[in-house]
Write a structure and sequence with these properties.
By secondary structure, the chain is of the alpha/beta class. Helix content is about 35%, strand content about 25%. Bound molecules: flavin-adenine dinucleotide.
Length: about 450
Amino acid sequence: MELWSIAIIGGGPGGLMTAYQLQKRAGRPCDITIYEAGARLGGKILTPRFSTAPVAYEAGAAELYDYSRVGDDPLRELIAELGLSTHPMDGDTVVMDGAKLTTDDDLLAYLGAAGWDALEAFDRRAKDWMSPVEYYEADWKEGVPDAMALAAFRDVLAEIPDAGARRYIETLVHSDLATEPGRTNAYYGLQNYLMNDPDYMGLYTIDGGIERLPEELAKRLEATVLLEQAVVRVERAEGDLLRVVSRCGGELESDEFDFVVAALPHNWLLGVKWGGELLRGAMERHHAHYDHPAHYLRVSVLFASAFWRGRIDGSFFMLDAFGGCCVYDESSRNGDDSHGVLGWLLGGEAAVTLSNLADAELIRLALESLPESLKFGAAEFVEGRVHRWCGSVNGMPGGVPALDPEVRHQPEPSEHPNLFVVGDYLFDSTLNGVLDSADFVAEWIVEEMEDDAP
Ligand SMILES: Cc1cc2nc3c(=O)[nH]c(=O)nc-3n(C[C@H](O)[C@H](O)[C@H](O)COP(=O)(O)OP(=O)(O)OC[C@H]3O[C@@H](n4cnc5c(N)ncnc54)[C@H](O)[C@@H]3O)c2cc1C
């Protein structure tokens, strides 16, 4: 029996999820080839270990979002299906000017009555604007942008009448936004504020590291996986086939497929040459619609002990350094109590600008940013690691206006109806979003295969 052939470009979570869902849903075997430019699968999910001691930390994606209180949660279901265990994450503290703000009383004392009122008013405004159910459904909506999609998040923040309350909110959301409030819209900014509320979503992680997710997916795939084989060109071939040209060693290889899925993040999309004027133009327009690069920089430090315990608890805390950053207590999840690990997640301008500095300098800046009450812990430094992620996430995912999900995933339907894209930038810049995208495309391809058996 002739098999349908499907090329998947990119061996990150999006590519692996697409392959897994295709394999699961297609009623019959298909011939899937995954092209991965790098030497490993998993993309921006990366759980390495320090060299001084084999202690794990998250160097890329660090938390997963749980929507199961509100509706179906495909990512939770996938993780359970893969036999992975999880545990919840929490972080209720924001450190501002050295003050640890965890409870309402802490906030009231720090902000004063006027600041507290301003914070409450902002919170009410955000919750009145979007309920947990509306939040859950928002990423699938297409249509005319509402006022919040057209306004800059900076302008909404500027309406907060108290400077302390405004700075608190900016610090709280900055690392999730991964961009500056002037570079994204109020819609995405407010969503990033609401995600801190457990009524909207919970946070969790995978025991043993988030990289177990791509590892378990890869184990189950019956696909040809081509590592260190970047795709350099895609174009229409004879009949309805698509030609994929890849670089293997110094040589170019060319193969033809019934379907091609580009499971690439936005910043890699134009690294591929899209052959022919029609396709090139369509891919350039697709790229431009989502062109809101956002940035991360991660500094992970191994300490002799988890010296902060008892002073700041939880899986992470927010800190008012670097324009607002998140500091993860990596040792709260890596199952190792021989050491302590803190991971600084810097976002936006700070991430881009500081990525020019050498690792040692970045590690020094991270240690210096520790709040006064924790500065003594710098003496326990053992090893530091830096991971730079410039331009690798999206600061206004979904684009404005949000397009019909079919249009998002099929950039050039007239002559390239068998070319699809999968990406988190089409939804919400997260693993939940890239799974939604992978599911959507896998389902579509399966329908096409059923309608048109070879
Ligand atoms: C620092 C950081 C923190 C994050 N934190 C979270 C988080 O806490 N929670 C969350 O849900 N999400 C988080 N994300 C986002 C999450 O990592 C992404 O949603 C996810 O990795 C997207 O998967 P992807 O497969 O689309 O892209 P990627 O993970 O980038 O994978 C794409 C793959 O394509 C390969 N590739 C590129 N070009 C080619 C080519 N021409 N040919 C072949 N292969 C190619 C790349 O080498 C890569 O392996 C974070 C991202 C970063 C950078």
